[in-house]
Specification:
With 271 residues, this protein is an alpha/beta fold. The protein contains eight helices and eleven strands. It binds NADP nicotinamide-adenine-dinucleotide phosphate. NADP nicotinamide-adenine-dinucleotide phosphate binds next to helix 1 and strand 2.
Length: 271
Amino acid sequence: MQTLNNKTVVITGGTDGIGRALVLAAIARGARVVTCGRDQSKIHALEAEAPVGKLCVVQADVTSERDCERIVSQAVAQFGTVDVLINNAGISMRGLMEEGGTSIIGVIKRVMDVNFNGAMYCTTYALPHLIQSKGVIVGISSIAGYRGLPGRSGYSASKFALQGWLESIKTELVDKGVHVMWVSPGFTASNIRNVALNHEGRAQGESPLDEASLMSADQCANIILDGIEKRKRTVVMTFQGKQTVFLNRFFPSLADKLVRKFFFKEGKLIK
Ligand SMILES: NC(=O)c1ccc[n+]([C@@H]2O[C@H](COP(=O)([O-])OP(=O)(O)OC[C@H]3O[C@@H](n4cnc5c(N)ncnc54)[C@H](OP(=O)(O)O)[C@@H]3O)[C@@H](O)[C@H]2O)c1
């Protein structure tokens, strides 16, 4: 067990949802945190909640390589090192390939850009520091990184890509003492479904799930931080999430039927 006390933790997308909960929980465990987001009002709200000297928030968009370089250089300038990088910033989508003509192409590109390229840029710039600190690289994936989900084809693609890429660099970095892992939350209450892109690339502005019944972002964040401190290889969360991963691996045809039943009613995507 290697605790986060006195470690420098970089968390992308830390101004809302799971990322915000990760920021506050990591600080509570004694870490110094550098995070980012695009919306200045959310940045101010987060800064107001954190103890002085423990948090640095950079206004940055992870789809910009320059911004990712800036996040890492800010962490090193302020705290001298990077011990843990949590690639958390992510967006989702809800749209079927058959609807809305070709506009879905732009949606999928955008989701890949944030969820995969953003993680790849930040990891690349942080890597020399993580090798020096023998640190940890974390990808916040999803159950959609194990099982393709209807209406979320680009989201699933981005999380499969993230996991495949992390598995590759995990093997590359074995001799360097860098631990690489990914965690897959199940449905967790957050803003992600509200801002998920519809097939036209606009925020859908609502959640098709009962957010109050989902795992809380605080609980999710603490499971993630426990997994990092224990240097787990992967973490899969919630009973429904574990069941989906298990069924898809050993009974894929049954998983096809159950997933279709969960997301569709009378031929229409309802979730
Ligand atoms: N909630 C779930 O049910 C669930 C389940 C499985 C996996 N996950 C994963 O968990 C991660 C966090 O999701 P969440 O549910 O906490 O979402 P969220 O509530 O929408 O929060 C997303 C955070 O990322 C930031 N962000 C989004 N796009 C960004 C960009 N281009 N550059 C920099 N920051 C950006 C947002 O701030 P700004 O918008 O201000 O930039 C916000 O701080 C994602 O990777 C998601 O795929 C979530």
